[in-house]
Design a protein that fits this description.
The protein folds into two domains: about 400 residues, TIM Barrel (Alpha-Beta Barrel), CATH 3.20.20.210; about 375 residues, Alpha-Beta Barrel (TIM Barrel), CATH 3.20.20. About 40% of the residues lie in helices and about 10% in strands. The chain contains 28 helices and 22 strands. Strands 1-12-11-10-9-8-6-2 form an eight-stranded parallel sheet. Helix 12 packs across helix 14. The longest helix has 25 residues. GO terms for molecular function: 5-methyltetrahydropteroyltriglutamate-homocysteine S-methyltransferase activity; methionine synthase activity; zinc ion binding. Belongs to the vitamin-B12 independent methionine synthase family.
């Protein structure tokens, strides 16, 4: 029985790639140094899977930034502004597309389906020139082969690539991106021919858009693409991988009818209905089924007995020799290796499996199907499953009772937002176009050292508190010097916006090295929600009060919202996600009310990940949005009219959920806008009325580029064309923790100058 891994984390067990990338970007190391680290990581990953007995090992899943950007490089689809002159795409052009440079902005970044991973959105149009401009897929296949390991090269499928793209600037929004299929297929043919010549026997095409609601025209594109590639693929085995949800019946019928395709990969973890589709429609004779039964997106140990039962049901349909045990998706979305977690509670650790352990699980299931079941391994797994179900640390009856009681109300504030804004303005006395930032300020090396030494007990609590107070004071004074209207304390006590809160809530566990890539070199360490959630004590009141005491200007209390904490954690899978979210909402509600009692008049409850959790199918969206928006309202339904509630969202397409955003009933929302070419503003041009305060980001903080005052002023003018003057705020796209002060100070200086310039223009126009 064969085994397969759809993809693997690329940062390394100790974030080796992250540090190599940042050293290269800072000019402290060479391209050769970066490439050496990357080669060592790839070699280690391939050898690990080979040693574990995996038959189908992926290559070309490694990336210096993002696999969609890699595909853009492969196709030579470089936007003109980067002045690429052809040939093999090098690091300068590649990283300029990802991060921008001193003269041009980066390409848009958005969420990869419903995950916290981000991809760089291709910009295409009728005049895009395609060429075979990156030989990475072939070189990595050869690299593995030289180590004695035959791999399955993985490519983003041509149809998914086009469906994830957007019309380039200046191209009509209605431009049919699928019309470019005939332009990119010749490049795919060249890559396939090179892989075949190098000795590849299998190729994997990732086509995850097949799980979405596709119309007949979009489905026909799959038939066209793989029919066109058929002769080039002759002599190769081809697997088309889908993941993250069920494959709808019509999409299933479309792909299983493709002659060029040898095998089909399906997610049987999130795709709970796929087995029924296979039973009802049938499976093509002689084809392989890659059964994704080991979860690629969570860290819970697989229920081996349940997975074996699913596999046996599939075996009866497709035959023993055509069934391949696989992960439900790439393991990119999980942590690397549980072996590195020396401080994790032993009982909780027994319930978990990171990427390295999931590789072992896949192989154990494949062996069990082949009649070589490791009884000891399966027995230990069953004991861990039973331990988790019966553990008293998982359940808190009081929390469950409080969450159940929420169902009778929609938890709205008593006064409408217009009246609240009037009451808040009387108290806050802000100018028009008030300026603010999103929360965090740069996390300096010194600041990280202080937190690290405090955790290691190398400095006292008093020394730690004094150091953090000093950092807050520096941030407050800087904002006052810049003349920002509503201040933040900069979050120097926090390494991560979700981890910080999870560490102070019950029902959470934490790792030391459980890092997961979010984008580029940015890694997060998601908390593990293993049980019922409650708040033992106040979490932010002390630091917010300290910060407010340092200034007469309004100081935001900074919280992470319940939906974002949920979506950016590894969530328990033994109860519905909405039940866990309601528990978190109650905990944040207590914190909001304590902040208000402490005199904090502006409280930001970030819901950066609300859109990210939106189901991939339209039929499931309404239910999710109902409980997600309700969870946010629970957090602040009890505050006074004069307490201003902000929220923040970033790096997703918000236009299709704008009415749900309005229904959140926040007083002010700050939202990503600049990197997506002001896509958000189009919804207001189309007539959506928004009466609360809103701050579409005026510059992109994920790029080191510093925008000019005039550039920011121009963005504000575009906003004023569709939004009322009295509701518009001026702010960056997101928090500033990933930037340096040398970038932040001039950018914020220009932002404030632009706001003042527009205030003068508006006053003179009266």
């Amino acid at each position: 029985m064969a085994s397969h891994i759809a993809g693997y984390p690329r940062m390394g067990p100790k974030r080796e790639l992250k540090f190599a990338l940042e050293s290269f970007w800072d000019g402290k190391s060479s391209a050769e140094d970066l490439q050496k680290v990357a080669a060592e990581l790839r070699s280690s990953i391939w050898k690990q899977m080979s040693d574990a007995g995996i038959k189908y090992i992926p290559s070309n899943t490694f990336s210096y930034y993002d696999q969609v950007l890699d595909t853009t490089a492969l196709l030579g689809a470089v936007p003109e502004r980067y002045n690429w002159n052809g040939g093999e795409i090098g690091f300068d052009t590649y990283f300029s597309m990802a991060r921008g440079n001193a003269s041009v902005p980066a390409m848009e970044m958005t969420k990869w389906f419903d995950t916290n991973y981000h991809f760089i959105v291709p910009e295409l149009g009728p005049h895009t020139k395609f060429s075979y401009a990156s030989h990475k897929a072939v070189s990595e296949y050869k690299e593995a082969k030289a180590l004695g390991i035959d791999t399955v090269p993985v490519l983003i499928g041509p149809v998914t690539y086009l469906l994830l793209s957007k019309p380039a600037k200046g191209v009509q929004k209605t431009f049919p991106l699928l019309s470019l299929l005939d332009h990119i297929l010749p490049i795919y043919k060249e890559v396939i021919a090179d892989l075949k010549a190098a000795g590849a026997s299998w190729i994997q095409f990732d086509e995850p858009t097949l799980v979405k609601d596709l119309d007949s025209h979009q489905l026909e594109a799959f038939t066209k693409a793989y029919s066109d590639l058929e002769s080039t693929l002759s002599g190769l085995n081809v697997v088309v991988e889908t993941y993250f949800a069920d494959v709808p019946t019509e999409a299933y019928k479309t792909i299983t009818a493709l002659n060029a395709v040898t095998g089909f990969g399906f997610d049987f973890v999130r795709g709970t209905k796929t087995l029924d589709v296979i039973k009802n429609v049938g499976f093509p004779s002689g084809k392989y089924l890659f059964a994704g039964v080991v979860d690629g997106r969570n860290i819970w140990a697989n229920d081996l007995a349940a997975s074996l039962s699913t596999l046996q049901a599939l075996e009866n349909i497709v035959g023993k020799d055509k069934l391949v045990v696989s992960t439900s998706s790439s393991l990119l979305h999980t942590a690397v290796d549980l072996v590195n977690e020396t401080k994790l509670d032993g009982e909780i650790k027994s319930w978990l499996a990171f990427a390295a352990q999931k590789v072992v699980e896949v192989n154990a299931l494949a062996k069990a199907l082949a009649g070589e079941k490791d009884e000891a391994f399966f027995s230990a797994n069953a004991a861990a499953q039973a331990s988790r179900k019966s553990s008293p640390r998982v359940t808190n009856p009081e929390v469950q009772k409080a969450a159940a009681a929420l169902k009778g109300s929609d938890h709205r504030r008593e006064t409408n937002v217009s009246a609240r804004l009037d009451a808040q303005q009387k108290k806050l006395n802000l100018p028009i176009l008030p300026t603010t930032t999103i929360g965090s300020f740069p996390q300096t090396i010194e600041l990280r050292r202080v937190r690290r030494e405090y955790k290691a007990k190398k400095i006292s609590e008093e020394e730690y508190v004094n150091a953090i107070k000093e950092e807050i004071n520096k941030v407050v004074k800087l904002q006052e010097e810049l003349d920002i209207d509503v201040l933040v304390h900069g979050e120097p006590e926090r390494n991560d916006m979700v981890e910080y809160f999870g560490e102070q809530l019950s029902g959470f566990a934490f790792t030391v090295n459980g890092w997961v890539q979010s984008y580029g070199s940015r890694c997060v360490k998601p908390p593990i929600i293993y049980g019922d959630v409650s708040r033992p004590k106040a979490m932010t009141v002390f630091w917010s009060s300290v910060a407010q005491s340092m200034t007469s200007r309004p100081m935001k209390g900074m919280l992470t919202g319940p939906v974002t904490i949920l979506n950016w954690s590894f969530v328990r899978n033994d109860q519905p996600r909405f039940e866990t979210c309601y528990q978190i909402a109650l905990a944040i509600k207590q914190e909001v009310e304590d902040l208000e009692a402490a005199g904090i008049t502006v409280i930001q409850i970030d819901e950066a990940a609300l859109r990210e959790g939106l189901p991939l199918r339209k039929s499931e969206e309404a239910f999710y949005l109902d409980w997600a928006v309700h969870s946010f309202r629970i957090t602040n339904c009890g505050v006074k009219d004069t307490t201003q509630i902000h929220t923040h969202m970033c790096y997703s397409n918000f236009n299709d959920i704008i009415h749900s955003i309005i229904d959140m009933d926040a007083d002010v929302i700050t939202i990503e806008n600049s990197r997506s070419d002001e896509k958000l503003l189009s919804v207001f041009r189309e007539g959506v009325k928004y009466g609360a305060g809103i701050g579409p980001g005026v510059y992109d903080i994920h790029s080191p580029r510093i925008p000019s005052t005039e550039e920011i002023a121009d963005r504000i003018r575009k906003m004023l064309a569709v939004l009322e003057t009295n509701i518009l705020w001026v702010n960056p796209d997101c928090g500033l923790k990933t930037r340096k002060y040398a970038e932040v100070k001039p950018a914020l200086t220009n932002m404030v100058a632009a706001a003042k310039q527009l205030r003068t223009e508006l006053a003179s126009a009266k």
